[in-house]
Amino acid sequence: MFKEFQEFISRGSVVDLAVGVIVGAAFNSLVSALTTYILNPLIGLFIGQIDLTDMKFQFLGATFLIGDFINALINFLIIMFVIFMIVKLMNKMRRDGSRSKFDENVEETDPQLEYLQQIRDLLRYQQRNDHNRRY
């Protein structure tokens, strides 16, 4: 069981996922600090309150604390914008035909040649099956 676990952990995708989670958590704390210590005071200057976490309103005797929700909303928007920009950059790199260092050895093939090779392989497969059915 330990060997299976070791093989599972040593796969590249698991390690990549772990790195992504750690980087995401660090990025989240950075965005939270940006929102709490820089953006909130700036927004607070315009609406007359310095600390948005204390922002509340009352309606029919009920008090609604909306400051934390506004902080979470600002964090969400910042993170989603950064993710959007990363995905946009990755899509542009794919469209431009940019290759990684691993793709340098891959040769471009003619699509017609690929189709002909697929037809050839299919015919070989069918011929083998027909030969096996006769006997």
UniProtKB/TrEMBL annotation:
PANTHER family, per the entry: LARGE-CONDUCTANCE MECHANOSENSITIVE CHANNEL, MECHANOSENSITIVE CHANNEL MSCL
Q: Where in the cell is it found?
A: Cell membrane; Membrane
Indicate the quaternary assembly.
Homopentamer.
Reported function? Channel that opens in response to stretch forces in the membrane lipid bilayer. May participate in the regulation of osmotic pressure changes within the cell.
Family statement = Belongs to the MscL family.
What the entry lists under Gene3D superfamilies is as follows:
Large-conductance mechanosensitive channel, MscL, domain 1
Asked if Signal is a keyword of the record, the answer is no
TM stretches of this protein: 12-39, 59-87
InterPro entries found in the cross-reference section: MS_channel (IPR001185), MSC/AndL (IPR037673), MscL_channel (IPR036019)
In the bilayer, the protein is annotated as: Multi-pass membrane protein
Q: Which domain of life is it from?
A: Bacteria
Main location group? membrane
Q: Which UniProt keywords apply?
A: Cell membrane, Ion channel, Ion transport, Membrane, Transmembrane, Transmembrane helix, Transport
| Protein name in UniProt | Large-conductance mechanosensitive channel
